[in-house]
TrEMBL record:
<protein>
    <submittedName>
        <fullName>Uncharacterized protein</fullName>
    </submittedName>
</protein>
<keyword id="KW-1133">Transmembrane helix</keyword>
<feature type="transmembrane region" description="Helical">
    <location>
        <begin position="20"/>
        <end position="44"/>
    </location>
</feature>
<keyword id="KW-0472">Membrane</keyword>
<keyword id="KW-0812">Transmembrane</keyword>
Length: 51
């Protein structure tokens, strides 16, 4: 666990910057997918009730 923290201590390194950027992009994509799944399930529930 500490090795991962120590690896990201040098923020001026391009490798760590790329790692943080890719991690942030993955987190944003996951969040968007989660919101879409929630919205989709709610819409599906509304259609089921309307039927």
């Amino acid at each position: 666990m500490m090795s991962g923290v120590a690896r990201f201590e040098g923020f001026d390194e391009p490798a760590s910057a790329v790692a943080w950027r890719s991690a942030g992009a993955l987190l944003i994509l996951f969040f968007i997918a989660l919101l879409l799944a929630i919205a989709g399930s709610r819409l599906y529930g509304k259609y089921e009730v309307a039927r």
